Amino acid sequence: RKGLSRIRKEGRDATRRYITQQQCNMAELLHEDEIKERLEYLRVYHKSEKHTKDKELLRMIVKSGKGANTGAAIRLANELIDLKRQNASLEELEKRFLFYYLRLKSSSWKDYIDATARYFRMSGLLTIHRSRINIAEHCRDIVEWIVSRKWQLKKKSDYLEYLHDCTLPALPQDKTAYLWQTIEETLRDVIKLSKATKIQIEPRAVKIDKEITDSLVLRRQLLRLTDIKRELREYEYMLLLHREISEIDKIIEYFDSIKHNDILGH
Hints:
Layout (H helix, E strand, L loop, with lengths): L1 H29 L1 H16 L3 H12 L8 H15 L4 H18 L2 H14 L2 E4 L2 E4 L4 H9 L7 H8 L12 H22 L5 H4 L8 H45 L7
């Protein structure tokens, strides 16, 4: 048991390191221009011999969104001062700065990541439990479509325009053709389940107006059909369990008969 706990801990630690590294790689890509600027300040600081100039350079190097007086920024400044006093190489100073800067930037994304996870949960596309993601079976085609897309970062000049466009990004369920196709497939499943369970469905419950072109109305119709399909599936599963219990009772009765020599006796 101790060995299994150790393996699990090592797995969690490895996952955490991998995620941190991926976040740092993305931060390095997103903040490439700012990193170049800070590294240039660092090179000047490494060569500088003027104390007053060093102070201003350090402030420019370590400052974050909250300024240069945060605890983390002050610690980095002191570490860079110590490294310079020890005649450390420029590479060592750059390594220490990047360790601080990339983790600082990537850690600020946690709130955004948490909000994104909540939005995905609300969408009904998937559920998230610890490190496991379960895709809803009836939404698999939508998820596959999202994953297959080639996304690219928007330029700052285009971002606000993209952000405030309520029609973007367009998902399959925003298109009437996809909605009609899914409605027809769901309706066929409902009719099939209705026959299998011998439950009559009211015609008005499954009646869809062919003239509907509003995607919002179609999504409501699809949601209603999906709920009916789910209820029928649950009832079908209950019938299956009932049949299995009946079969188990028959098997037990059969073995009891053998035990009491009612059948296959000598």
